[in-house]
Amino acid sequence: MRRVFNGVTRVRVPVLEPRGSGPWPARDRRLTHSCSALVYRQHGAHSDVVRMENLPLPAVGRHCVRLKMLAAPVNPADINMLQGTYPILPPFPAIGGNEGVGEVVEVGSGVTALSLRDWVIPVDAGFGTWRTEAVCDAGDLIAVPKDLSLLGAATIGVNPCTAYRMLHDFAHLRPGDTVIQNGANSAVGQAVIQIAAAMGVKTVSVIRDRPNRWDLVEELKSMGADYVVTEEGLASSEMETIFKDVPKPKLGLNCVGGQSGGLLLSHLDNGATLVTYGAMAKKALPLPAKFLIFKNITLRGFWMTQWKRNNRDDLTRLRSMVNTLSGLVRSGQLSTSQCVQVPFSLYRQALVATACSHQRKHILLM
C-alpha cells in the first residue's frame, strides 16, 4: 500500500510481518526466529538515527519464505531514506537498505517459484536488507544465479539494471552508434560503459578532473570506454576531434545536472534523447530553446524503482533482464565495481563512507 504525503510516497513495509500476507491466524503469529537489524525510528543523520537491534521474526506462512541475508550494499539512496529526502519512505520503525542478496532457508508450503538454498534479491525498494534474516512474501523476491560472485549478486539489482534499461528503452542503438554520459566513474556509469561495449556501442564518458585523473581514465578504458574526457574537455575542441571519429550521440545520460548536463545537450545529434537519472550537482539543468527547436532533442527522466513498480504485476521482464546481465557477468563483459567489504557489526564505517563523496561502494557482509 502506498500513500503520498507532500509529494513523498510512503510505502508500507512491515518490519515483522511479510508484505501482502494479510492478517495471520493466531497460530501463525508465534515467533520462532530473531534477527539483527539496522533500525531507524525517525529521520535524520545516520549517526543519530540508526541502531542495531534484535528483532523477532514471525513463523513462515504458506506463501512466504525465510531468508538469510548474505550481503547488502550501502547506496546513496539508502542514506537519503534515512534523512527523509528520498521519494519513497517506509513507515517507522524501518529497517535500512534497499538492495542485497539472501539465501532461502525456509519455504512455505504454497511457494513454487523459490526453493531452499536459492539466492534471491528484492523486487522493490524499501525491503530492508540491512538485517541478518527476513520473512517475506515469496513474490517480493526473484532468484539470481548462484554462480555469480556474492558481491555481484548483491549489487546486480539496481545499478546494472539502471544502465541496461537506459541503453535499451530510450533510443534504438545499433553497433557503431554513440552514447555520451557524465558521472562515468559511478557504478551506473561503469555499467553503461561495459554493457554498451557488449552492444558494440561507442561511449564518450565524462568525469570530473581530479589528481588521479589518468589512473581513472585507464581504469574506465580497461572496462571498454572509448573516450574519457573531463567536464572542462566538454567545452573544448577535444570534442570536435572525437566526433570526427564517431558519430554524434543518439543518447545522452545525465546524473549530474547543472553545467555538466547542459554541455551534454550541446553535443547530442539531431533527434537525440537526453535521459536524466540523477542530480549530483544539485543544480538545475540549463535548457537553451535552440536545442529543442533546431535539434529536436527529447528530454526524459528515469528511475529504476518506478520501472520495477510499473512491471510489478508481471516479473518476466525483470527476470529476463537480470538473467541477461548475469550472462554478461559470466562472459566477463560486465564486472562488479570495486567495493569495500565491511562486516555487518562495523556498519557505521560503511554509512560514514557512503555519506562522503568519491568513495568506493561499501557492502555489508552478514
UniProtKB/TrEMBL annotation:
Classification via Gene3D superfamilies: Medium-chain alcohol dehydrogenases, catalytic domain, NAD(P)-binding Rossmann-like Domain
GO biological process: fatty acid biosynthetic process
CDD domains, A to Z: ETR
Primary location recorded for the protein, binned into one broad class: mitochondrion
Entry GO MF terms: enoyl-[acyl-carrier-protein] reductase (NADPH) activity
EC number assigned by the record: 1.3.1.104
Family statement drawn from the similarity comment of this UniProt entry: Belongs to the zinc-containing alcohol dehydrogenase family. Quinone oxidoreductase subfamily.
Protein name: Enoyl-[acyl-carrier-protein] reductase, mitochondrial
Biological source species: Synaphobranchus kaupii
